[in-house]
Amino acid sequence: METILQLLKKEDFKFFFTFFLFNFNNAVILKYRRYYLFLSSKGLYCIRANIYYMHSYSWINGIIWMLRIFLYIMERLIMNKKILVFLLVAIVALSLSAVSAADNTTDDVSVLSSYDDNAVVSEATNDISIDVTAKDITYGENATVEAKIIPNTTTGNIKFSLDNKINQSGVIANGSASVIFTNLEIGKHSVIASYNGTNSTPFVFNVNKISVYNMTIDAPAVFYGNNVSAVITLPEDATGDVNITIGNKTYNGKLVSGKTTIAIPNLATGNTNATVVYFGDKKYANKTINTTFTVTGNTVTNDTFFTYFGKDGVLNNDITFSDLIFAGNFSGLNLSTLTIDKKINLIGEKAILKDISLVIKADNISVSNFAIVLTNTSGVESAIDVRGANANIDANIFSVNSAFDKNSFVINAENAVNLTINNNTIVYSGKTNGNGINNIIRIIDSDNVNILNNYIFAEIPSVPVNYMPPTWAATVMSAGIYVEGSANLNIASNNIAIEYNNANGAYDTIHNLYIEGGNNAIIENNNISTKGHTYVYGITISGKNFTIASNAFYSDSDNYYADGIQIYDNSNGILKDNEVFVESPVVAYGIYSSNWGDKANNITYNNNNVVGNSSYIYGIYVSGNNETLIGNEITLVGNFTTGVASSASTVTLNKNDIITNGNNIGNASKCGDSIIAETTGVKIAYGNATVTNCTVKTTGEYTVNTTGAGSVTYNSLVSNVGLGDKTVQANNKTIVANNGPKFLIDVPELVKIYGSADKLIAILTDSSHNPIANANITFNINGRNYTKLTNGTGVASMDINLVSGSYKVTATYENTTVESSIIVTPTILANDIVKFYRNDTHFVAKFTDSNGTALKDNTTVKFNINGVFYKANITNGTATLRIWLNPGKYVLTAFNSVTGEELGFNVTVLSTVITENLVKYYKNESQFVVKVLNGDGTPANGTNVTFNINGVFYTKEVINGTATLNINLYPGDYIITTMYGKYAVGNNVTVLPTLITKDLDMKFQDGSNFTAKTLDGQGKPLANQNITFNVNGVFYNRTTDENGMANLLIRLNPGKYIITSIWNEYQVGRTITIA
Q: How far apart are alpha carbons 188 and 265 in whole angstroms?
């Protein structure tokens, strides 16, 4: 605004004297004068000046001392100029300073003294002065307007006019009057007070919008995947819009009755800052509030448990995650059961549920990577209870100790079709006394169950099977896996070991697998071990079309009875490629097709290997209809050993190899079976039997003993009395023909010491076990044939000068070949060694002569390792070579100077400094970590390791077995050397860039962008990062998008430029070429 400085003379104004007051106080007179100045020629405005001054009583002649001046501008300056007036009056010099033309104000102004004897002052005729004041108010408040009138002795009423519309009067009291105006609208209001024709200067006051009011945001935390629902509440009569801004996104809501709800989708897990803005209305001022919205992730901890679950342990309905992660230990929740009643994947991250079970009540639920520990102090019956379809229980660890004599299961499933139990580790301890059921896995009426790749170890009591009226159906109290009424069962690739920890009651029994009444069961590739007290069963199965294949069964009874595989009821299927071992003190069955219930039908036994040891033992016992045995191997040891026993209506044996070695001592009828045990290869109690192409060797009198109908033909039969047909006991209903052999070649395995005189022999006998002399027998060893002649005892022999090791050997006579083996044991006895660098482990070998006698002391032997020969003397039969080599793998050769044998051994020297190459992204948290061990493999805590990288040495202490070095180098490839003691090892350290750029070749103004990409510490794109580009001396800032990309449009003239990209304290230079 323009400022004008003017000097006014008395002819430029009219000066009215308005009030004159004398106050006498001793010799001093205080005088107060009020003047109005009406400027006529220098501008159009008027000024009221209050002048305070004092002087002596003789003021007319006076000496004047001016104290203070207050100025009040009553009207605006029309010319919009700021005028500085220097007024000369008779007795006072006045400095008037005008303020902005838009405002009315009161200022203190400095005063200059002056004196003019010629000034003329004329008095005004009006002696009334009115001064109006009012405070600004908020909408809804009442405005109190006060007018002060001078002289203050004035009486009567002052009229107040508001906005020239509303008039009120106030009674004058003590020089002032006031009125109250109500229901005023927001904005500026002008009030004039008047008294007997004298008006005050208009006074303006404001009615402001309400700025102090409640505005609340209620947005409860939600689970990830749900919209945040923000409820914004203002006064009920508030109207208008509310915006919520998050980043560059804005969400709008309109107020209804002072409230609006705004849905915010797709927020990330955690806390998100937001700005909530109400834009105000005619009554309420705008307001801004910063708030935070919380989105809860899918990780449950013990502390946050009840965010996801109710107090009753039921999963909350509003969880939308497909995965729910449990982290850490869970206990002290006052819960014994978690109920999952919606589709979800439960995933453990080092999660332990203690005395808390899972109940699955919905379909499509998976449970993986949990550790569930039940001590059953809370009475929990099962670790996981499944009542839904398509459940998956995978990679969990279970530790369950059952309560005494209560039902107890690890996994209990009923009506749970398509259940998969995979890759779990289960440790179980049962405590039933015969009243409570102890099953590790129990499956009832659940089709398509898969039990795969699990490790199960259980200790359970051996108690009797419970037969309950009226049906007298069996209730198996102690079992590993119990399955009932479930079709399409698949139990595969599991390791299941069951042992009894107590025995109670008569006929106490343990079943490893018990499968009842389900068709199409597949049991394959399992290791099934069962050790029990009285009755022990590896697997008991009934059902149609089952397959039991490629399993290993081990059943061991301490007291009475062991059974590998038992088939019962009206069942059919195939058993193939199984390994079965049974052992008991009294009775054992390798495979048993029982005749209780309806008989089994059409069961095939192919290529099974059955081995057993018991007083009374049966390799394969069949008693159903149409039983077929093909390609099985049966080897039994005991008192009475029966390879195959049959009471089947029809049985066929083809290409089976049977060896039964029995002592045949005592009364065989005590076996307790309807087929009396005896040492024989095949015993047919009744029925139609066909035995062909089998090899049977027994220490009993008969290889085949049959009382039924059928045929025994084309077999190789050897008993303790002879060979071939003469070893078959049969009635006239059985055809016995063409059974061999005519002679027998026996080649015992040879085990000899290197260089000894032991020989390989073959024994040749005829069908009555008489020796055959002067017969040529051809040995084949290592691909070479050697022919030797039998002596008078039917023995042919040959020297063996092989180096130590194992060899296959065959002996052939008249187109009959038998196999055997040779084992040559060394005269240098030592083991491969694995040692830590420079510890006290050394290579020690025992040296013997060819008779196995240790070499004498001070005998010299030699070693060769890493190309160097060393001599050592024998002390107490051994020689020692100290190993001080660097970490690595070596072959050590030892030389026996007496036998001439030399043998190689592996020597592995392990590093006590274990390192790996490091690949990391620039400035992420990855460190170079070295594991440092003592010579015994224990952590070398408290020692120091030195690192050298990029020419700088760093020394770090070993803590908890490791030493670490932070890598804060720029992107590039480095070699780091780790030094510990006398050992040093080098590794590669690769620092990958997190700012990715490349050179740009472009045409002039073709719209090309120079692009930079930012990555986080894991190599993932990083959004909302500010990148600075410096090109041609000019800096540009760009922000990366959701793909981590920032683009700079290039508009330079043709030429070659260097562009530098700067981010996260890292700079990358590139070339831009513009053609």
A: 44
